[in-house]
Amino acid sequence: MLVKIGLDLGYANITLSNASADIYREPSVAIVDKNTRRILSIGARAALKNEGEEFENGVMIRPFKNGLLYSSDLTAEIVKNVIDAVKPAEKIRCLIALPSDFLPKQEAEMFSMLSAAGVSEYFSVKRSVAALIGAGYSPLISAISVNIGASSTEIAVLHKGEILTSVRESIGGEDFDKAIKQHILEQGDMNVSLLVARTIKEHLGAVWQGRESESIDIEGTLSLTGSRVKMSISTEDVVGVFEKPLKNLILSVANVVKKIPIEYVNEIFENGVVLTGGGAELYGLDTMMSKVLGISVTKPHNAIDSVAKGLSRIHNFLPSKKKLTGKNITSQIAKFYENAHSKQDTNTSASSDDDVKFDIN
Ligand SMILES: Nc1ncnc2c1ncn2[C@@H]1O[C@H](COP(=O)(O)OP(=O)(O)OP(=O)(O)O)[C@@H](O)[C@H]1O
Ligand SMILES: [Mg+2]
To answer: At residue 294, what are phi and psi to the nearest 5 degrees?
Structure first.
């Protein structure tokens, strides 16, 4: 049996999807033995520990910082762990989403890790393009895809199936967590972990008005005494804290928008910006970005799933006979999509490999 999977190795989350767009997500965290550097645990179990904290023989790491590899050995082991979750499939065809600034050498390294993990066919696509498709759009449209992760933001400008630009900026959801952490330190002389700051951001944070007022209980340590304390924090306590990362994020998008050749502007502005990734879930970000940039900004439901959904969707319109192993298929996406659709028009009894399933949103 051939199993098609999509794989996205993010800074915060490892996401796997199958051809029907069922999504499996694990935190991208590993506990590594300080002496032997062997992985002691990965995923949800490892994420329960505090980042940076040392315990027993282990130390916590985030293996995919800034879209790059923390260490080849560890990445290979993590990839093997993830692929083992798909086994005992006889044959695995894996499409991996990669950052736009991944070097050919790094891509080749990633492919050999997949091969070593038992994947028989592997190929890649730029993350921002997969994200746009996963948000429900055809790769033939004109739009600006902005995928905001935890550590970075991938921006791509598409014009009728052609990718005009794609860049990665080092700004993401964690910069907003850091802003909360800093604010609590300055205002309350209290240290909270990045995990606590992230929870506050997700439950109370907003960059536009309208979020319902709410409070949550948090724990931290007083900077003066080091004693552990609990306190309640509410939506009003974090108003205005995101100014700096928000400005940097919007500037990153504006810089790309500014460089769109004049002859393409009208068509691209028709669809405007499509926001995806977990970072896009920040309350009011779509509205704020639209007001500042003066263009339409849309965000699909469950924006955090867009890359994974896009990988599933791409799998379903790839030509089944074509050997794609070891290739980056980004520039061919539009052609594959068009071919699959014209084939569908003339041949309704396509083989199961050619089945185009679009019921993903
Ligand atoms: N409801 C929410 N409000 C605000 N932020 C959210 C929400 N849900 C998730 N996030 C943020 O989304 C980020 C994780 O998103 P995602 O899984 O897309 O990142 P990633 O792919 O692992 O990171 P990267 O793409 O940078 O490697 C985290 O910073 C998280 O706090
Ligand atoms: Mg991501």
So the answer is: 75, 25
Distance of alpha carbon 10 from alpha carbon 67, whole angstroms:
7
Q: From the CA of 144, how far away is ligand 2's center (Å)?
A: 16
Name the residue at shortest CA distance from atom 4 of ligand 1.
282
- Pocket, ligand 1, Cβ cutoff 6 A: 10-13, 28, 64, 67, 149-152, 172-174, 198, 201-202, 277-279, 281-282, 304
Q: Which domain holds residue 90?
A: 2-25+69-127+306-354
By most ligand atoms within 8 Å of CB, the mutation choice from 42, 196, 202, 216 for ligand 1 is 202
Q: Is the dihedral of CA 271, 272, 278, 280 positive or negative?
A: negative
Query: Tell me: the pLDDT tens digits for 157-190?
Result: 999 989 999 999 999 999 999 999 999 999 989 9
CA distances from 22 to 82, 217, 268, 309 (A): 15, 33, 31, 8
Check whether residue 120 and residue 201 sit in a common domain. no
Q: Could you say which DSSP state residue 150 is in?
A: S
